[in-house]
Specification:
The protein is α/β, with parallel strands linked by helices and 236 residues long. It contains eight helices and six strands; from the N terminus they run βααβααβαβααββα. The chain has one domain: Undecaprenyl pyrophosphate synthetase (3-Layer(aba) Sandwich). The chain binds 3-methylbut-3-enyl trihydrogen diphosphate (IPE) (2 copies) and magnesium ion. One 3-methylbut-3-enyl trihydrogen diphosphate (IPE) binds next to β2.
Length: 236
């Protein structure tokens, strides 16, 4: 029974397999990314309906700049299009959009689209959609260290008062820990995704490629989560 399922508070999705989805159909990789973006919209709305509070999605890693200029340019253009026009349905579901990642070297146009959707949804109160864009987990920890060090040097923070809550508040977004990380396409690695936040997450690696990760697959993932026993170091 759906009503009996525990819904994870914070789910992370490493949206992998767009390229392979397209290649298997003889389409360009761009088509795979476009289909992946449509899937993201559907999954976000479904997650909100199920009562998920935080959904963090890996959309573009700091390492993804190693791809061809054509693919990077397409992904940037797609993001502008998504944030400016295509997300209206998500906004109508009262979703708040936030971003994690470095702003540099994103272009003014991309930043403007990101800032506009952040501003437009800032008072929304249902699911928080955290889009990891130009994001790297190691870079996030580096940026956190620099920010805290600078506050210590200014005398605003005492070293002995630094706690885990302090660390969390200097990450790109101050979110609860990840309960569940899903990576589609069968790859079993983090690829620099939310290293700090994933410390006690459950992991799930379905074979399905991200564009095909629709409502049924999402529900299967939730069912899988419900089979896990979380112990957090104790002896439950
Ligand atoms: C994930 O799909 C989307 C991004 C990294 C932007 P990929 O583009 O990595 O797809 P595969 O792994 O080549 O199939
Ligand atoms: C991770 O996928 C990044 C995103 C899904 C945005 P990649 O496809 O870039 O990761 P690797 O290169 O296979 O580790
Ligand atoms: Mg990939």
């Amino acid at each position: 029974m759906i009503e009996d399922l525990v819904i994870p508070t914070h789910i992370g999705i490493i949206m992998d397999g767009n390229g392979r989805w397209a290649e298997r159909r003889g389409l360009s990789r761009s088509m795979g990314h476009r289909e992946g973006a449509n899937t993201l919209k559907k999954i976000c709305i479904y997650a909100e309906k199920l009562g998920v509070k935080y959904l963090s999605v890996y959309a573009f890693s700091t390492e993804n700049f190693k791809r061809s200029k054509a693919e990077v340019d397409f992904l940037m253009k797609l993001c502008i299009e998504m944030f400016s026009n295509e997300f209206q349905e998500i906004i109508d579901h009262n979703v708040r959009v936030v971003f994690s990642g470095r702003r540099e070297p994103l272009t003014k146009k991309v930043l403007k689209a990101m800032d506009e959707i952040t501003e437009k949804t800032k008072n929304n109160t249902s699911l928080v959609l955290n889009i990891c864009f130009n994001y790297g987990g190691q870079t996030e920890l580096l940026d956190m260290t620099k920010k805290i060090s600078s506050e210590v040097l200014k005398g605003n923070i005492q070293v002995e008062n630094i706690t885990l809550d302090t660390l969390s508040s200097y990450l790109y977004q101050d979110l609860p820990p990840l309960d569940f990380v899903i990576r589609t396409s069968g790859e079993q690695r983090l690829s620099n995704f939310m290293l700090y936040q994933a410390s006690y997450a459950e992991f799930y690696f379905p074979e399905v490629l991200f564009p095909d990760f629709l409502e049924n697959e999402f529900m299967e993932a939730i069912v899988e989560f419900n089979k896990r026993t979380r112990k957090f170091g104790g002896n439950v």
